[in-house]
Amino acid sequence: MRATFADFTIDPPRFGNGTARYIRCHPDRDRLAIGAGGRVELDFALDGGELPEQLTLTLIARVSPLGESLGWAPIDITVNGHAVISRFTVPGGARPREVAFAVPGEALVAGLNTLCVRGCAEARGLLWLYRISVEPSRICARTHLMAEERPAEAAVCAYRTEWRAPGSAEWRPAPRLLVHLDRGEGSLPVRLAWRGQDGAEASIGFQPAMTEFYGHRRAADGTLTEYRGVLEGRSPLRDSALAEVMHRFRTVEGCGSGGPGLRQELRLLIEDGGPPVERVIWGDPSGHSGTVSLLAAEPGPEAEVTDLVTKVRAHSEFAEAGEVAENLLHDSWHKWLGHGDRAWLEFTLRRPVAVGHYVLTSADDVPGRDPKDWTLKGSNDGEHWADLDSRVEESFAHRHQPRGFTFAATTAYRHYRLEITRNAGEDQIQLSQVRLFTSAPQPKGFIGHYQRAGEAPTGYRGTSVSAVPEPGSVTGPPRTVEQWRSCLAEYSATILRVADEDELSEVDDEQRAAGWLGFEGADEESVLALEERLGTRLPPSYRTFLSASDGWLNISPFMWRMRPAKTVGWLREADPETWSVIRGGEGEDWDDTAFMDRALLVSEEGDAQHWLLDPADVSEDGEWAAYIWASWYPALGDRHASFAELVVEERKGFEARAAHEVRMGRPGTAEDLVAEGRAQALRGEVRKAMATFEQAAVKGSGAGAYLGIVLGAFLDISAAHHWIRTGILGDPRVLEAIGMEQLRAEAAPLYLRCAAEEWTGAPGGYLSALGDILPRLPDGVDGVVGAGGVAASGAATEGDDTAAWMARAAAFAPPVLPESRTFQQALDLARALADRGATDQSWAVLEAALPHWHCDSPHRIAPVVLLTDPAFREVVTPARARRVVTTPRGEFRE
């Protein structure tokens, strides 16, 4: 038979394989209250075959107190009228207790059976019954919930928590804890431990029915506290928006011992008020245990709605220092700073949106100004506010640290208010950025192991249910030589379709004809010789990679050649110069020296990056963790569980950026991406548009590269000259796609706005395209001899002195691109107001006209004149520049 149970910890109660009746008793919050003479009857059926010799009856219950004294509520239990136990008293105390009884086979009948729990007439108090179950006789410590019957009804437990310092008598409020862990077997955890992405760790044990927990916690800064909590309630997933933030994984068990085994689903949610969890360890009543390490993911641009913010206000700001609330919407080093140790920030969106995840980023100095306690609220009228998410005792481990917070998003609001009720001790509050998302980032999967009681551990892997692979896409890391050959052949075909000649300069005709960017596989003797030289056995997936191809070309856009077996070696020996440079990093976050001393170098030539394997981080199936070190990272990149998973992630990233439609065989995909990005930009969806233009640029679209850089200039004009120099003036595809006239009208003046002000030396020969754009000057201009003596191409050269360069820049008069009649009239009026010093009135005119801006050219997405015309230098501030491109324009205006 399958277990019969009644679970009164959920409202309404849940029943499995049976029905219940109440007589003079009633459900009370998360339990059933049975008074004197009251009873509950549970009906269950046994088939007509051989009846069991014995069943196990388990109760989880406690007796209600009588004032400050213990209550007394004895019970009688019968099955089909046969006494199981009489006048039994559940041991007293403040916590539920679990008790088990044997039900003899002679009390059972084929067909319908009735279990009765009755309160004795002389009881002085209530019996609080949490759960009751009847199952085949075996040693059991707790009710099994039979989640396979109705898995959608399992609940999320919410706990009110506290912590205190060791030796202290004072418990202080801590963030709410949400817990749900279900492998599809219906067994609740009795112990649980987890680690957050910031390094904070907690370990707890649960009371029966998970009504309370006790444990300890170590914060990211090393502070150790006792940790306890009391159950506030359970939220059935079928009725709860928490289902939207639940991590769900398709799993394979047994992959560490010879191939895939048991397949089922793992559902996991641990929300303790801190960053997302990256590792979880648990044990259940049967002695089974498991551990998983999650593969983190960033929220995609499709989930971010920060661009919809049209206005941000604060209780105060330091306008004289430029530390205003508007800076919170920028991806920059600027910040918002307000007076006092309490503050509020309000964000008004263009339309109502259900925000379910937000990111706060600490500012550049004075940790005592960081927010510590706050509540996020939502409103649709700006007056009546609903509490959405509350946090207490939060902290930021370092400066410019982004931290994400997730909550159940059930309602769309147009206004969001962050009320900061306490900071970290100073008399000012600051943040550098606030970002809003509709959903939290979902882990892409996990690796780990699972161990059943009395058995050896086995491999345990999972893939996010939401990570549904596209047709033809990579479905998992290759492990065998055949899987590697198949994976690399598909990857080669994609790269050969989209890469240009410069990127394929080392690929010979034979490799092109074969569609294979690799080489002959290394024979077993070569691999064994490498292992003997290293003094260790190679991880399985890298070993089979070498057998499939002894080295590789263009394995990612930034990694051009992988080492063959004969040159693979420890970083300190294979590339001592690089080793001495990258192991000597500095800064508070640098802790990779030991790693660099032991790392295995498997890459040969790339764009300032190296691929490394860690022999000290080994999984149960022998895989070594894999990393990319690059000069643009502050330290190591993301951890990958194996070399194979690193290759798969790089391939997925490449295909997502460059080959989505190409893999599907559709022509003209770069043009389609440019059109899609332009529509997104005109709708004000800046981050989505930037990502789309980047995909088009990777595919070789000069228009995509140009439009992405122009859009980025509105977000950060101070950095625009760097992007224009490398991404526009240095790329002949841009000139071919956009044309010299538009480059002179938009790109050149954008570049000069910054470069001409900041330049401290000659421009250099790499600015040949800009040299063609700028006018030639006669000899002796401004007293500069030979100022017009440029190279034949018209380019500035290393020999040109700074004065000549500045003179040419000053003489440049960009052409004027045509604007619509309505917008041109607004420009003329705004200029006149700006000339009189009425900058705010000038901006009001421009802001009112922005929705009406439109252009038929597919290569214009915003009025760049607002950034390049000196008349608007004081009018269009960085915050207002961002407002220009986040305002829906033309056919997309609202």
UniProtKB/TrEMBL annotation:
Region named Disordered: 458-479
Domain spans labelled F5/8 type C: 289-439
Highest rank taxon of the organism: Bacteria
Pfam families: F5_F8_type_C, SBD, SMI1_KNR4
InterPro entries: FA58C, Galactose-bd-like_sf, Knr4/Smi1-like_dom, Knr4/Smi1-like_sf, SBD
Alphabetical list of PROSITE patterns matching this protein: FA58C_3
Name of the protein this chain belongs to: Discoidin domain-containing protein
Lineage of the organism: Bacteria, Bacillati, Actinomycetota, Actinomycetes, Kitasatosporales
